[in-house]
Amino acid sequence: MAQVLVVTSGKGGVGKTTSTAALGAALAHDGAKVVVIDFDVGLRNLDLVLGAERRVVFDLINVINGVAKLPQALIRDKRLETLHLLPASQTRDKDALTEEGVAKVIDELRANFDWIICDSPAGIEHGATMAMRYADAAIIVTNPEVSSVRDSDRIIGLLDSKTLKAEHGERVDKHLLITRFHASRASRGEMLSINDVLEILSTPLLGIIPESQEVLRASNVGSPVTLNNPHSAPARAYFEAARRLKGENIPVQVPGESKGIFNKLFGRKAA
Amino acid sequence: MSLFDLFRRRSAPVARERLQILLAHERIACSRPDLLGVLREEILAVIGRHVSFEPEKVQIKMDRGKSVSTLAVDIEIPNLDQLLGVVTVPVG
User: Chains A, B: CB contacts under 8 A, how many?
Assistant: First the structure.
């Protein structure tokens, strides 16, 4: 059965689009049918990060308005044939993102895909609430930094109140993805530690993406980091996160923590 | 590098403490955005049952402290034989 995920954060610039692309590619890598949807109407960027910016003809708003059929707007990735993109429009008003219109698109996608990943815009306005509206599960992207953690807390509150599942008394599964983590700075007490963030947000951990130049390098060339350099540290962390999404129980290794005898004996568990 | 520098660089514990205090407040405020309005109506209804007062002579304010918040309800009552001054109820 199809899973609808929302990648959200509240704060901008923490890595939602990068993570959507990287996780989408990681899930599609094993042959699962994946569609990533850009909900950032007016400021689309997922097409650029995926290297599909010159192939956009129709977009999400065109489909909602009936200007185009859904298959006409979907762009198939050139590297992974099971990965698809539904781009955002660049010009039209974000109010065109109607609740009924989004519901119809998501329903149609559910019939044809295994994973539907909604890349939320920053903020807590209409676009962000529409992106999370029909989600079964949420990935909350957080940097170990005060404003990002605070905004994540607000988003968690919205996931528990503004989603269709929440309104029906069900729960949206929540997963925390900590990005731009600097192991050495955290160990010196210059950056919030993984445990600090987990304790404050009390949300299960999906993965830790280390700060790495590979992330920028991949977006420069328009390729998800999981495809561009699959053996790099951030790519490996995204691949593991994707396996956890599929239900595999893989312990999270905190970067920089020694794999000493103590950790081997009492291996940490998360998610 | 002095010992003082070493200590000053450990800013993460400060971040952690600030967040814990802030979010404790925001979680209450965001889960009940109408909290102040509801409290106002219900408190005035209870007092109105026993004494008469003019609605415009009522002041309600909430102050956030570090560990507790205070809700202050100030009601001006015309006849002074009914003594009711400032009621302060700790919340959160």
Answer: 42
The distance of B55 to chain A (nearest Cα, Å) reads: 34
For residues A45-68, b (16+ Cβ closer than 10 Å) or e, as one string?
Answer: bbbbbbbbeeebebbbbbbbeeeb
Cα radius of gyration (chain B): 20
Q: Which residues of A touch B9 (CB under 8 A)?
A: 188-190
pLDDT 10s digit of each residue in chain A, 271 long? 899 999 999 999 999 999 999 999 999 998 999 999 999 998 999 999 999 999 999 999 999 999 999 999 999 999 999 999 999 998 767 678 999 999 999 999 999 999 999 999 999 999 999 999 999 999 999 999 999 999 999 999 999 999 999 999 999 999 999 999 999 999 999 999 999 999 999 999 999 999 999 999 999 999 999 999 999 999 999 999 999 999 999 999 898 776 554 444 454 444 3
Q: Smallest CA–CA separation between A53 and chain B, in Å?
A: 38
Partner-chain residue, chosen from B9, B20, B31, that has the shortest CB–CB distance to A189: B9
Interface with chain A: mutation pick from B9, B14, B23, highest number of A CBs within 10 Å: B23
The overall pTM is greater than 0.90:
no
Question: How many angstroms separate the CA atoms of A271 and A176, rounded?
Answer: 9
**Contact, A153 vs B27, CB < 8 A?**
yes
Identify the sign of the CA torsion A12, A17, A23, A26.
negative
